[in-house]
Amino acid sequence: MNEVENALQTKLDAFKENLSNEFASKESLENELKALKEENSKLTKESTEFKEKTNKEINTLIEQVKQMKDHQVDYSTVKTVTELVDKWLTDNFDTLKKNYDAKAGILTLEGIDKAVGNMTSANITLPTALPAGLVAERQGVPNVALRRPTILDHVNTFRTNQKTLTYVEAIAGEGDFAVVAEGAAKPQLDIDFAERFVQPTKFAGWVKVTDELIEDYPRMRDVIVNYLLEKHNLFKEAQVLSYIDTNAVTYVVTTNALSGAVLMPNIMDVVAALQSQILASPNYTDESDFLGDTVLMNRGDFYRLFGSAKDAMGRPLYDNGYQLGTTFQYNGYTFIALPKVTAGTIYLYDSTKIDVTSYIPYHVEIGWVNDDFIKNQFVILGESRGHIYIKEHDKRAFVKGSIATILTDITVPEPAPEE
């Protein structure tokens, strides 16, 4: 096959491909075949065999095209609404005249689409009920608004790779120095040691969801993951508060240095009484002093004893540099108002003496339970492991008590009535 034959064969193959195009114009196909047939007729004698074969193929295609319906629209046959109305009036003039003279009769105008009117809200057709979750599907789901934990900012926090934490406490033993006479025996002293250990605690929770929930609603996976994280942190804070409550020493009445010694006591006197108990209860003689620096109170007590406290002239007793529900610095103490603190209870502790570790940091896992996989359900689980502990000798730096009980205990008693 020479170059001329190759060129013609290529055009013929291209025509066959275009023939399958449903939008191809019948007229253009016929013109293209006519050009191919003319080009084929000009081939030389050397191409006689190819020429005869190609001519038969072209004739077959011509017959095939003749059987086709033209998909191109002849817009010259399309009538406008005005033309249709004019024709209808002309065709039906006599009938219309008779109906008019008789003052009766009906004649229908057919073939005309409905007239276009002004668009109003009445054009809107509403479904009987919107699909469930349509608004969430369009707008996404916001994060659950949870408060931020505050106690975790007022404890020691650190990472560890040890499951079991160990520590040693030294304890002053028996004996002490003394003044001795010449030649007399000197007193003996000793020190005791105590080995202690702490085991980790796991904090965990999970949510089961379907594939559709995650796929249909924007950011739903992030919302769930964030919710689990924030709930985890709040639960961890609650565990720290519970641990402090369990290990704090309860205020002892009548034995405090301020018992019966304060005239018109206020909340700062209550804190001073708790501090006095910490200083007055060493584990052994000459132990170094512990000083509480953090106070935990219920929000209602916080407002009642700080926000609304006034002096004898009705002026605020404390400055207003605080906001209810947040932390507040006063006289070297950090006051924290928490909803989980029992109303009427107050805590004072040394924030350097409680440790909160992260043994297995918080993480999220996704998996299936039983036959969840074939139900397109899965679990999003958040968890962590860590330690919450106060060394045994440091527990005296944590005290608690009833605000009302302490106020009563430290108030100067009224003098006995004269006889």
Give the fraction of residues assigned to helices. 25-40%
Task: Please give the count of helices.
Answer: 11
Overall mean confidence score, pLDDT? 83
Could you give the order of strands across the largest sheet?
A: 5-14-9-6-8-7
- Tell me the count of domains: 2
Please give the radius of gyration in angstroms: 47 Å
- What's the shape? elongated
Instruction: Please provide the count of β strands.
Output: 14
The CATH architecture name of the largest domain reads 2-Layer Sandwich
Structural class of the helix and strand makeup?
alpha+beta
Question: Keyphrases for this structure?
Answer:
single chain; 419 residues; alpha+beta; Major capsid protein gp5 fold; 2 domains; 6-stranded mixed beta sheet; 3-stranded mixed beta sheet; 11 helices
Task: Please render the helix and strand layout as text.
Layout: H1 3-19, H2 26-41, H3 48-66, H4 81-91, H5 93-102, H6 134-139, E1 156-159, E2 165-172, E3 191-198, E4 201-210, H7 211-216, H8 220-247, E5 249-250, H9 267-279, E6 294-298, H10 299-307, E7 327-330, E8 333-338, E9 345-349, E10 355-358, E11 360-367, E12 377-386, E13 388-389, E14 398-402, H11 403-410
Parallel strand pairs: 1-10, 5-14, 6-8
Antiparallel strand pairs: 2-3, 4-12, 6-9, 7-8, 9-14, 10-13, 11-12
Helix pairs in contact: 1-2, 1-3, 2-3, 9-11
Protein architecture, described:
The structure is a single chain. The chain is α+β, with helices and mostly antiparallel strands and 419 residues long. The protein has 2 domains: 3-66, no CATH class; 151-165 and 196-410, Major capsid protein gp5 (Major capsid protein gp5 fold). Helices cover 34% and strands 19% of the residues. It has 11 helices and 14 strands. It has helices spanning 3-19, 26-41, 48-66, 81-91, 93-102, 134-139, 211-216, 220-247, 267-279, 299-307, 403-410; strands spanning 156-159, 165-172, 191-198, 201-210, 249-250, 294-298, 327-330, 333-338, 345-349, 355-358, 360-367, 377-386, 388-389, 398-402. The strands form 4 sheets. The chain has a 6-stranded mixed β-sheet, with helices on both faces. Strands 1-10-13 form a 3-stranded mixed β-sheet. Helix 1 runs parallel beside helix 3, helix 2 runs antiparallel to helix 3 (48-66) and helix 9 (267-279) packs across helix 11. It is elongated. The N and C termini lie far apart (144 Å).
